[in-house]
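Hey, I'm writing a tutorial for new members on how sequence and structure tokens pair up, and I'd like a real worked example in the thread rather than a made-up one. If someone can provide the structure for the chain below, I'll link this post from the tutorial.
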Amino acid sequence: MKQRVVKLFRRFAMVVYGLTLPLCLLVLFVGVAGDDAQGRHQLNWGMILGSVLAMAVLVWRLRLNRRALGGPGAIPTLRRLLLVFVPLGIVAVAGVLMAAIGLVWTALGIWMVVDPQNAQSLLYMPAGPLDVRISGVVLVFIGLVCVAIGAVLSLFFLRLFRRKTPEMTSPDNGADLEAGHD
């Protein structure tokens, strides 16, 4: 039982680390392309160094957890990182943001359905509680669609960390490995 909990925790940690890497890339971009208070281009060395160090620690922890779970310890090549991981990481960040916005819209829509009088007083809505409830139901639907789309966008990135089990052949299974070969 304890091994299953540890394995589940390691997988969860890998997901969190994998989703945090694109956020570190975003911080690195802001540090490189940011402006100062007067609107002039100014490199923010604190953000740049902090994001690079955070990415190094996250990659190191991903590698350790992957090896602990039985996956290969090899780090992907730089070309694979740039062509696969970075674009899918950016899409994953957009998916997480879209899912978060969808959750907020869903909660707002539920509030509008449950309490139409307060919703109408705080939000600019047409007169009548029926109109507010219909708007709330539509908002809940749109929010759930955004959550689903955001989850799908994030899943493409998470699939990169999936562990493939090696195909093992054993003489115990009764299959003759030399059969059919000349």
